[in-house]
Structure prediction request, 93 residues.
Amino acid sequence: MNFRVWNDKILLRSAKEHLEKIKPLVAQFSHKKKEILPSTSFESLGIDSYEVVDLLMLIEEQCNVYIDEGKMLELKTVQDVLDVLDKCSQEEN
Prediction:
């Protein structure tokens, strides 16, 4: 496996790639100037639950994945989204 260190955390290469792909999308919805890290919560960026759903739909489109609608409101941080994307990637293989 290919690992990288990211903000004192070890992430799989695919997780880093996913992070780099979704950071600009998250930034589009952010109401606050704040660095977007895996631990960043949507609440801390001023993104409300309706915007989270819109963001996740955009991520679905950009990453060619499906996120169950029932799970969307359970996702509170960037890491939560990365975990879903990683799970989707594993299911593809």
Observations:
- The CA atoms of residues 20 and 50 lie 23 Å apart.
- The first strand starts at residue 3 and ends at 6.
- Strands lie at 3-6, 9-12.
